[in-house]
Amino acid sequence: MNIVITGASSGIGYYTSLLLSDQGHQVIAISRNAKKLSMLKAEVGKRKPGSKLIIVTGDISDEDSLAKITGEIKSQIGEVHVLINNAGILVNKSFQELTSKDWSNSYSTNVFGVVNMIRALLPMMNAGSHIVNISSMGGFQGSVKFKGLSAYSSGKAAVANLTECLAEEFKDLKIAVNCLCLGSVQTAMFSAAFPTMKASRSAKEISRYIAEFAIGGQNYFNGKIIPVSNSTP
Questions:
Q1: What is the mean pLDDT of residues 1-16?
Q2: What is the pLDDT of residue 188?
């Protein structure tokens, strides 16, 4: 399969890229961090010589950068079977402290970055393709919420709702759209939000679930918001 992953230079995206590359899939790994992407490519090369992993540096929230990203994907693979919208940022401030720039930065990546990638790659997707949006339990309706995460959690809730809308819109195209709302995963973002807490899952562990779901979840789910958590948060 041809699989595109955003936010691939660290944490969940990094390990999911490694795992899918190990399985022989053609992975396009996207991030703003060129240095860490190079490290990912080197690691993939050590684990699986001759791997087809392709790294693309760019900012999915910037239109000019997005055009460059899209052009590289078209030239490299042409067709996309799976898109994993994993990129995200976390602003941890009380509502009173959040500035307009904080809200803009958060939504630019966490919401509009997802929209941008889907709009850009949809013409390269055919029947049977799968879009997987990575959200958070903070964006899952009815879940426990935490102080300081209003910008992050509300953006992730928008991604969940967008998933339901697009699943209906893409039904005739036979392109599935699902959303995974992850619980606590030990990443840099989690540590920033909860510095005194230990997450229930490592990035390596959750990447195995995401990889398996991305490849086959469309055979069982469409338009579903799936909580992936056995703890709070």
A1: 96
A2: 74
Per-residue burial over 20-33, b if 16 or more Cβ lie within 10 Å, else e, is bbeeebbbbbbbbe
Q: Which whole number is the average pLDDT over 131-156?
A: 93
| Cβ-contact 30, 69 below 8 angstroms | yes
Q: How far is it, in rounded angstroms, from Cα 195 to Cα 119?
A: 36
* Coil, helix or strand at residue 145: coil
Contact status, residue 183 vs residue 138, Cβ threshold 8 Å: no
Question: Which of these, 58, 57, 29, lies nearest to 43 by C-alpha position?
Answer: 29
Question: And the tokens for 200?
Answer: 């229930």
| 141-178 burial: b if 16+ Cβ within 10 Å, else e | eebeebebbbbbbbbbbbbbebbbebbeebeeeebbbb
| Interval 116-129 mean pLDDT | 97
* Residues designated as active site: 9, 135, 152, 156
Three-state DSSP at 71 gives helix
Sign of CA dihedral 113, 114, 115, 119: positive
Residues 6, 198: contact at Cβ < 8 Å?
no
Q: Report pTM.
A: 0.94
Q: What is the side-by-side order of every strand in the sheet holding 130-136?
A: 54-57, 26-31, 2-6, 82-85, 130-136, 176-182, 225-228
Cα 199-203-209 angle, rounded to 5 deg: 105
Write phi, then psi, for 49 (nearest 5 degrees): -55, 135
Sign of CA dihedral 88, 93, 94, 97: negative
**Size (the chain), residues:** 233
CATH topology of domain 2-228: Rossmann fold (3.40.50)
Q: Inform me whether the pLDDT recorded for 233 exceeds 60.
A: no
